[in-house]
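>> received
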Amino acid sequence: MSAQPSRVFVVSAPSGTGKGTLINLAREMYRQKFGKDLVLSVSYTTRPPREGEQEGVEYHFVSLEEFKQMEANKEFYETAPFSDRWYGTPKRYVLEAKRLGLDVLLEIEVKGARKLKLNEEFPEFTSAFILPPDRSQQILRLLGRKQNNPQDLRRRVDEAAEEIRNYRMYDYVIVNEPGRAAEAAAQLFRILAGVEPRPNPSTIKRRVAEILATYNRRKDKNPNHG
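>> returned
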């Protein structure tokens, strides 16, 4: 077993931000640089899989009854509702990574990340928040999935504005600009590698204010035309 202590990373993002793509790219960079895998903790959810999603890859898909039983068995570090579904962070990935001396990344919602910060049982971690550049780009990405009805899309966009206001909870903020996913993934990798400098708070505050302004300006009733 490696003597290198396991590090824990938490990554969050509003829906339609390209979080999964950035994580996959950053994990490949990590693998090439360090010659080992970055363990990805796969959350549990009660929502059904989207087209193309695989059990145990994007999520573990379980029924509400199964989820509640796991919760009763204390198998989660935290659980949280999102868009009328439940999500949970299992303990087993973090515990196994610590046993093997491997780093582990958790991809979780903002509500879950907040709970982890308050959970004394959860180890210290570094966190990153991935944001869309503006409201329109988030909507375009959600529409590109072709898996959200208008009501669900509007809910996700409305929830995004509230989530973004929690940016101060995270150590780093990454804006996934259109056509620049490789740059955003490289920034995430540098965070994982421990070489990314701490961001300037005033710079981040200004950029987040610009993003939030695009949500505040657009109060139209049909987000499909955002």
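>> The domain at 8-40+103-225 is CATH 3.40.50.300 (Rossmann fold).
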